Amino acid sequence: MTKVWLSAPEEEAQTLTRPRVKPPDMYKVVLLNDDFTPMDFVVHVLQKFFKKSLSEANRIMLQVHHEGAGVAGVYSKEVAETKVYQVNNYSKKHQHPLQCIYEKE
Ligand code: TYC
């Protein structure tokens, strides 16, 4: 619930509460192309962290390869941050330079 302050000129100031109805801001998690990460590894990452099917993972990987970047998924800020952290950590662990970022939709 969000507290809303109303000024009431003739009366005392009062507070109201109302349900939060605004949908949360959403964030795109984006994979960036590079010249070294194997295509198979990118497909694996899309399946492991973004729950993509093999054909959808292939499609996104090829889009990144040809266009330089591609959207892996759209999430709340907290989930997007976590995905980015997990993917970048996993890529480092496997010694690939794959970069994952997030940006507001
Ligand atoms: N360009 C890479 C290659 O030719 C493949 C690749 C695709 C790398 C997508 C990163 O996010 C990426 N091996």
What are the main properties of this structure?
105 residues, Ribosomal Protein L30, Chain: A, 5 strands, binds L-tyrosinamide
Question: Short summary of the structure?
Answer:
With 105 residues, this protein is α+β, with helices and mostly antiparallel strands.
Q: Spans with pLDDT under 50 lasting ≥5 residues?
A: 1-14
Mean pLDDT: 88
Query: Which structural class is indicated by helix and strand composition?
Result: alpha+beta
User: Main β-sheet: number of strands, strand sense, barrel status?
Assistant: 3 strands, antiparallel
- What's the N-to-C terminus distance? 24 Å
Structural domain tally: 1
Predict the CATH topology: Ribosomal Protein L30, Chain: A
If you had to describe this structure to a student in words, what would you say it looks like?
With 105 residues, the chain is an alpha+beta fold. It has a single domain (26-104), classed as Ribosomal protein L7/L12, C-terminal domain/Adaptor protein ClpS (Ribosomal Protein L30, Chain: A), CATH 3.30.1390.10. The chain is 41% helix and 28% strand. The chain has a 3-stranded antiparallel sheet. Strands 1-2 form a two-stranded antiparallel sheet. A hairpin with a 7-residue loop joins strand 1 and strand 2 (14-18). The longest helix has 17 residues, at 77-93. The radius of gyration is 21 Å and the shape is elongated. The model is unreliable at 1-14 (pLDDT under 50). L-tyrosinamide is lined by residues 31-35, 37-39, 42, 61, 64-65, 98.
